[in-house]
User: Which sequence fits this backbone?
């Protein structure tokens, strides 16, 4: 029997360990729910290709179609994707810098975008809710500050975007997400027109650099053994050669060897090719080797507009990225991309079958060999 | 109608569990026993109440007691509280000479509620019934009962229709006496009214 | 009819000679009254519930003690106690109930009784309301007890009365056995006299009423001797009769419902001159001489009986040594001429007789038959059992389904007998995975809950009704408390024994006669066993689901969640509705992505209809009971509910 719709998602994505827990299939209907780190199909819907099917970033994504819908050009297999401008930056606001990660640029930009009316609300990730992070809606700077730090744990943030979009109360939302989450939002733009009601309310996307994410339920269990969750102020993975997972608590800092954490990495991350969130308006990560600063990649006109406004209003300090750091970033990104592709090919056993990726396999082969 | 000379006369009252077919069979049966008839009624209880098909087989004879189930093809009169059940009983027990009096309000089966099966349109059911019977009457007893404010009265309206059709050897007035014995004072007037509405409805349809 | 008698004649009518239409089981109740019965007990079970139901309504008038007992074993024990103290008593049960009472019954067979004790057993031939088909007559043979089978509604009354006399004459329990079509069918019954009875009960303490310890086999021999005396007595019973010609081409031997079907079959085939019917009423012990007398007059014998080939086997045994060298041809359930499964009906009997008499019989013209088959296959979908609109079990299974999906460890739900047994089918989202006898759900669950040491990792749950809880689940629950078995008991308290007609049980504050009675509190019982209890309202589906999820995380020992909500049938449709419910067609997404007919296709309450033309869901006012649960279910909040006072 041919699998359709939700059943296809269940069989080809969830059961194949491809699910990144981005949440794009949730928040719209009673059938899919994100619960304790798993996406669960509660009942069977018999629509053959509904929104869940079309939104999922791990079930048949044509990178070219998506790239054209966002940037107007074809997808190129290179290190960083479509980039208009590369810089390092940090927030001018001390309060933001102390609450945020690295330079606090994500927090600063989102607060600014809200203040300027660029967006009317932001979907962020709430780092703790019973310990398990999930998407949350913020409309004030205070709320944004509340959720200002990295999590490293996979959260179904796009589900919150879907619910908010469907509730009809917000018209221009900003979303901060990991590469898979950003891809899901981008994927929505190539869905059939009657399924575009959600993405019509998307005003801005900020992507986060990501190497991998952790499985929530298991990792939270591990954390709980080390510290009471309410005492955690911040977590961080400093750049190599540190090789630790730092937990900053109210009473000090706990360093856990990164190797102890690796077993909690979501299996789906193995098959990811995107380190820098290539489909976002602006992608932001740590500026490796430059403590207290972020790397900022502007990708779209919209992103450029926001960043320039922020520059003019002196919300951010912005400088050119040193060439050495840029090269390093490109190298790391290429590494993840190639590794991801190789893992995909190993899983399918066939270089012409790229699993969820619809791309020209000849180009991909050349990229891998080059 | 030529049933007056038939012995036994086989009446089947059918519907969905909970519609009140047992009350009808009891009223009809008791009236006829008082007239000196030998009556056997076969019925199902229990599980059938939970939305399943139910049927009361009423065997009417002046001579002897018959078995509690109608043999295949021997149903003379089918009184249906639900149209699909009327058709079902007709396919199982009817013959070309059967008479059918049926309520037209459908009760969906579980498979229909969930969308796995389609409930046949009323016209289709009517067509099936007319192909397999001598004459059929269709009465929207449920609507009439809802208008009276008591959906449960549908079975009393249908009883009126059955008695009014004159197919069975039942006297209308003697039957009304039955109500006095079966219903409390407060319920009496409403039930008598429903009964008479059924008689009026079928008399109107026949003419 | 006298003016003062302007009410329906019930089983208590003081009108000897009057012909009334009674159910077979009502006729038995009347027969017991005519015998001056003093005590009547039962546990509800189709087709036997009406005996105590009817007698309970006249108990005060006749100064009777009538009880809905917690189970059939206790019911028979109470009736037995009355009999042993000098009061005529009757106890009623279905075939499964007999299985429950069997241990005590075997003891009674050995001790005998004092005043008449009648055990009425109703076998649900065809399993119309049962989970199995079972022929209780085998028990009579196994325990060496007399068994009678009425063939008509009149006989049901007459035999019931006479059974007390037989019981006293031979100091034995007498089994009065019948099946659904007699017990739940109605027929003409001529009423007899109602006696004035006064009892002076006393238990004779100069006697030991027990099978003799260490010498039970001697009692067994005495029992056989008694049975032979009864057999001789049965030879002349007026409940056995032969109708038909001498030396018939075909001899039909019937008991119970077989008689009416066979008599009608011969009439239908106009074969009354070719076949004769030996109608047996004193089925056990079989009156050998009587049967032999007619056996030797025919070569072809057809047995028409329900449920098993009981008479057939007994007569085959008898015939084996009857006439050296003579061979009979026996037909019946063992040869397939009468279907060995399912209930009897006239068509089966007509078909078997026609076959054996080389007659062709076509009930309908073949063109008509073909048209019936065509129409039935195309336009007449089957009607499955479903929960009533507003049933709290549907809501509970809905919450349970969700909780188990979210829990994700493949939880096992065991169960047993009651309306909630429909949890096995799509009506209950196929949540209930096992069902055996009453109370087995708790037993099986407590067994699964001890398998962790072998690596069993699935959560274990069981669903159990409030009546079943007292009937048979308590011993298993005590066992699980002591053995620390890990499972969750979901106790469905809908305030009565719903499936069979809302008879009271010990957890209800009234008794069979309608008086108020002390309520046995299930919560206190569990607490006394050291078992944690919580109570939820199953109509609050989200809270119930969350409570299930919370308890699923708990570990050691048994846990109880009581889903407390009255059965919707206790209040009639239209009255007692909690809410006025309406679908808002503007918000209803129907088949679209985001809903895909969630309320009608997945939740499946018959109170909601799907309109094919408007493509919207709508509430069916004639069916909806106003529970309001669907308002919680709708993913778009498109179902509005307005609380009614």
Assistant:
């Amino acid at each position: 029997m041919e699998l359709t719709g939700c059943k296809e998602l269940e069989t080809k994505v969830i059961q194949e360990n491809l699910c990144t827990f981005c949440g794009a299939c949730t928040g719209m209907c009673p059938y899919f729910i994100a619960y304790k780190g798993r996406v669960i199909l509660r009942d069977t819907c018999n629509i053959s290709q509904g929104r869940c099917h079309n939104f999922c970033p791990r079930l048949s994504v044509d990178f070219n179609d998506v790239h054209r819908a966002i940037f107007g050009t074809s997808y190129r297999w290179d290190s960083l994707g479509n980039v208009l401008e590369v810089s390092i930056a940090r927030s001018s606001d001390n309060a933001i810098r102390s609450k945020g990660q690295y330079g606090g640029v994500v927090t600063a930009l989102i607060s600014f975008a809200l203040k300027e009316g660029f967006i009317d609300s932001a979907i962020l990730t709430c780092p703790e809710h019973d310990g398990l992070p999930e998407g949350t809606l913020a409309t004030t700077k205070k709320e944004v500050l509340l959720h200002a730090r990295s999590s490293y744990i996979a959260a179904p943030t796009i589900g919150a975007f879907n619910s908010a979009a469907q509730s009809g109360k917000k018209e221009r939302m900003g979303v901060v997400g990991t590469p898979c989450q950003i891809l899901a939002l981008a994927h929505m733009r190539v869905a059939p027109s009657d399924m575009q009601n959600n993405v019509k309310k998307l005003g801005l996307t900020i992507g986060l650099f990501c190497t991998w994410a952790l499985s929530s339920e298991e990792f939270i269990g591990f954390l709980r053994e080390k510290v009471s969750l309410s005492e955690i102020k911040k977590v961080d993975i400093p750049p190599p050669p540190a090789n630790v997972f730092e937990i900053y608590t109210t009473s000090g800092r706990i360093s856990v060897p990164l190797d102890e954490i690796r077993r909690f990495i979501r299996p789906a991350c193995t098959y990811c090719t995107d380190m820098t969130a290539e489909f976002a308006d602006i992608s932001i990560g740590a500026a490796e080797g430059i403590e207290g600063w972020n790397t900022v990649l502007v990708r779209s006109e919209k992103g450029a507009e926001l960043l320039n406004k922020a520059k003019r209003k002196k919300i951010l300090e912005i400088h050119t990225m040193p060439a050495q750091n840029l090269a390093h970033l490109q190298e790391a990104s290429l590494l993840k991309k190639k590794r991801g592709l190789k893992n995909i090919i190993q899983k399918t056993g066939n270089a012409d079958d790229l699993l969820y990726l619809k791309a020209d396999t000849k180009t991909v082969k050349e990229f891998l060999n080059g | 109608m030529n049933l007056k000379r038939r012995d036994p006369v086989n009446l089947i009252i059918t519907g969905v569990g909970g519609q009140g077919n047992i009350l009808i069979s009891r009223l009809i049966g008791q009236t006829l026993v008082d007239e000196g008839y030998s009556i056997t009624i076969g019925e199902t209880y229990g599980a059938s109440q939970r939305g399943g098909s139910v049927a009361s087989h009423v065997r009417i004879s002046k001579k002897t007691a018959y078995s509690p189930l109608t043999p295949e093809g021997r149903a003379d009169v089918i009184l249906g509280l639900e149209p699909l059940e009327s058709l079902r009983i007709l396919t199982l027990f009817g013959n070309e000479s059967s008479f059918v009096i049926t309520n037209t309000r459908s009760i969906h089966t579980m498979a229909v509620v969930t969308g796995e099966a389609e409930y046949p349109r009323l016209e289709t059911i009517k067509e099936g019934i007319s192909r397999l019977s001598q004459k059929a009457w269709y009465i929207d007893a449920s609507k009439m009962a809802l208008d009276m404010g008591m959906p449960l009265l549908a079975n009393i309206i249908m009883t009126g229709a059955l008695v009014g059709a004159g197919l069975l050897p039942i006297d209308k007035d003697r039957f009304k006496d039955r109500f006095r014995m079966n219903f409390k004072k407060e319920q009496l007037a409403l039930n008598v009214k429903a009964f008479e509405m059924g008689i009026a409805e079928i008399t109107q349809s026949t003419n | 009819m006298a003016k003062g008698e302007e009410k329906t004649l019930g089983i208590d009518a003081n009108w000897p000679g009057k012909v009334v239409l009674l159910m077979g089981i009502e006729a038995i109740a009347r027969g017991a009254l005519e015998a001056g019965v003093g005590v009547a007990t039962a546990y509800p079970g189709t087709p036997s519930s009406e005996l105590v139901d009817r007698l309970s309504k006249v108990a005060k008038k006749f100064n009777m003690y009538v009880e809905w007992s917690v189970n059939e074993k206790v019911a028979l024990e109470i009736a037995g106690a009355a009999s042993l103290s000098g009061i005529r008593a009757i106890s009623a049960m279905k075939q499964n109930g007999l299985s429950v009472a069997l241990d005590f019954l075997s003891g009674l067979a050995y001790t005998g009784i004092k005043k008449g004790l009648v055990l009425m057993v109703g076998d649900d031939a065809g399993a119309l309301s049962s989970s199995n088909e079972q022929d209780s007559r085998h028990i009579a043979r196994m325990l060496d007890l007399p068994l009678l089978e009425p063939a008509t509604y009149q006989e049901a009354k007459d035999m019931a009365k006479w059974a007390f006399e037989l019981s006293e004459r031979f100091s034995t329990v007498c089994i009065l056995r019948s099946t659904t079509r007699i017990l739940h069918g109605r027929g003409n019954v001529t009423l007899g006299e109602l006696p004035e009875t006064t009892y002076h009960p006393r238990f004779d303490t100069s006697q030991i009423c027990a099978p003799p310890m260490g010498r039970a086999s001697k009692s067994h021999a005495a029992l056989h001797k008694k049975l032979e005396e009864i057999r001789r007595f049965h030879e002349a019973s007026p409940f056995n009769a032969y109708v038909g010609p001498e030396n018939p081409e075909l001899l039909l031997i019937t008991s119970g419902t077989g008689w009416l079907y066979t008599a009608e079959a011969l009439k239908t085939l106009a074969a009354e001159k070719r076949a004769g019917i030996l109608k047996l009423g004193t089925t056990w012990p079989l009156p050998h001489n009587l049967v032999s007398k007619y056996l030797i007059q025919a070569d072809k014998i057809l047995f028409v009986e329900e449920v098993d080939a009981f008479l057939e086997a007994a007569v085959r045994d008898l015939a084996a040594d009857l006439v050296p060298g003579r061979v009979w041809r026996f037909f019946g359930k063992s040869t397939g001429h009468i279907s060995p499964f399912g209930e009897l009906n006239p068509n089966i009997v007509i078909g078997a007789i026609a076959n054996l008499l080389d007659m062709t019989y076509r009930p309908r013209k073949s063109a008509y038959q073909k048209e019936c088959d065509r129409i039935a296959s195309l336009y007449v979908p089957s009607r499955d059992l479903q929960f009533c609109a507003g049933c709290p079990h549907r809501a509970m299974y809905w919450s349970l389904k969700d909780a188990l999906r979210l829990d994700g460890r493949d939880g096992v739900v065991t169960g047993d007998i009651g309306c909630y047994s429909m949890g096995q089918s799509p009506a209950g989202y196929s949540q209930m995975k096992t069902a055996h006898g009453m109370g087995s759900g708790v037993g099986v669950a407590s067994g699964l809950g001890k398998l962790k040491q072998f690596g069993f990792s699935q959560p274990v749950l069981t669903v159990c009704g409030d009546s079943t809880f007292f009937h048979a689940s308590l011993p298993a629950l005590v066992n699980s408390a002591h053995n620390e078995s890990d499972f969750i008991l979901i106790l469905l308290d809908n305030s009565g024994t719903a499936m069979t007609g809302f008879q009271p049980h010990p957890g209800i504050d009234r008794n069979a006669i309608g008086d108020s009675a002390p309520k046995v509190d299930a919560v206190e019982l569990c607490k006394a066993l050291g078992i944690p209890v919580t109570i939820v309202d199953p109509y609050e589906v989200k809270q119930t689901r969350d409570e299930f999820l919370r308890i699923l995380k708990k570990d050691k020992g048994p846990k109880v969640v009581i889903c407390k909500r009255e059965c919707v049938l206790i209040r009639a449709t239209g009255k007692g509705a909690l809410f006025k419910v309406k679908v808002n067609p503007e918000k209803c997404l129907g088949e679209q992505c985001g809903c895909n007919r969630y309320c009608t296709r997945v939740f499946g309450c018959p109170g909601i209809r799907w309109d094919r033309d408007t493509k919207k869901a709508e509430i069916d006012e004639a069916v909806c009971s106003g529970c309001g649960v669907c308002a919680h279910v709708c993913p778009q909040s498109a179902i509005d509910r307005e609380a009614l006072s």
Notes: The CA atoms of residues 8 and 38 of chain B lie 9 Å apart. The mean pLDDT of chain B is 89. The helical segments of chain B are 21-34, 83-93, 110-113, 122-132, 141-147, 154-164, 172-182, 185-206. Chain B has one domain: 2-206.
